[in-house]
Design goal:
The protein is built from four helices and six strands, in the order βααββααβββ. With 101 residues, the chain is an alpha+beta fold. The strands form two sheets. Strands 2-3-1-4 form a four-stranded antiparallel β-sheet.
Length: 101
């Protein structure tokens, strides 16, 4: 299992996001082995970043929360809303095809 975490930015977040980008990326480097995939969410119409998505390699929600809560973006209040969802990867290149086979 894994944890999918969707984070939505506060309004007018671009300056805050840019100000803390270096520390956020440095933190991501320290937990890279615990991340299946991560990246910013973008507005299709404007291309501006509107949030972040993380899929953490862990079965434990508390571990996923710790990974996010220690991220500088979370610590400076960039995210207005955070959703944690358990995820059972079942198909795709990440899981090596189809898990049911």
């Amino acid at each position: 299992m894994a944890w999918l975490v969707i984070c939505r930015d506060i309004a007018d977040s671009e300056a805050l996001r840019q100000r803390h980008l270096a520390s956020h990326l440095a933190y991501v480097d320290t937990i890279m082995d615990q991340i299946a995939v991560a990246g910013p969410l973008a507005s299709q119409s404007q291309g501006a970043y509107t949030g972040s998505c993380f899929i953490y390699h862990t079965d434990d929600r508390a571990a996923a929360e710790s990974l996010l809560f220690n991220d500088p973006y979370h610590q400076v209040g960039l995210y207005r809303d955070v959703q944690f969802q358990a995820l059972r990867p079942a198909a795709g290149t990440w899981v090596g095809g189809a898990a049911w086979r």
